[in-house]
Amino acid sequence: MSDDSATVHEADLSQPEDQAATLHLLNAYAMDPMGDGKPLSETARREVVPGLRAHPTTLVFLATCGGQPVGLAICFRGFSTFAARPLINISDYFVLPGHRGTGIGRALLEAIEQRGRKLGCCRLTLEVQEHNHHAKRVYAAAGFSQAVYVAEAGGSLYLTKSLS
């Protein structure tokens, strides 16, 4: 998938170029204030690509502009028990700051949606930082909204518990 400024492809993590692009962009995302605010640890840098390759549901999408990696989406296939169909969770989604607002993020989301439709997925899911207003606008424009399954139950919240 492409637009005037970017090309998006599903990464092949057996290829060194896609491995390097994934690691470069993931580290940039980790350093971003809306990421983790610090670079990936040496352990993460060493183990993330092999870990993604070994994980059976990994989907990675890379956006390039002028041959340079500028956007990343790391996703995992999951399963909706109520719909009895697969889904795709967008775990990491990032566009380099100098390329934001150019349609690259939209192109990444369109590529993920296209792949999800081919896989017969019932939905795409993601989490977003509460104060990441730019990303929230991008997601809303692409049709994402807070999950509400039964109005009386309220909106869905994403919770976490560290095991380390």
Quaternary assembly: single chain
Number of helices: 4
Overall domain count = 1
Give me the count of strands: 5
String of helices and strands: EHHEEEHEH
CATH superfamily: Gcn5-related N-acetyltransferase (GNAT)
Distance between the termini: 39 Å
Description:
- The protein is of the alpha+beta class.
- It has one domain (7-153): Aminopeptidase (3-Layer(aba) Sandwich).
- Helices cover 32% and strands 24% of the residues.
- It has 4 helices and 5 strands; from the N terminus they run βααβββαβα.
- It has helices at 16-31, 42-54, 104-118, 133-141; strands at residues 7-10, 58-65, 68-80, 85-95, 124-126.
- The protein has a 5-stranded mixed β-sheet, with helices on both faces.
- β3 and β4 form a beta hairpin.
- It is globular, with a radius of gyration of 16 Å.
- The termini are far apart.
- The model has no long low-confidence stretch (mean pLDDT 94).
Please give the structural blueprint.
Elements (H helix, E strand, L loop, with lengths): L6 E4 L5 H16 L10 H13 L3 E8 L2 E13 L4 E11 L8 H15 L5 E3 L6 H9 L23
Provide a brief overview of the structure.
The protein is α+β, with helices and mostly antiparallel strands.
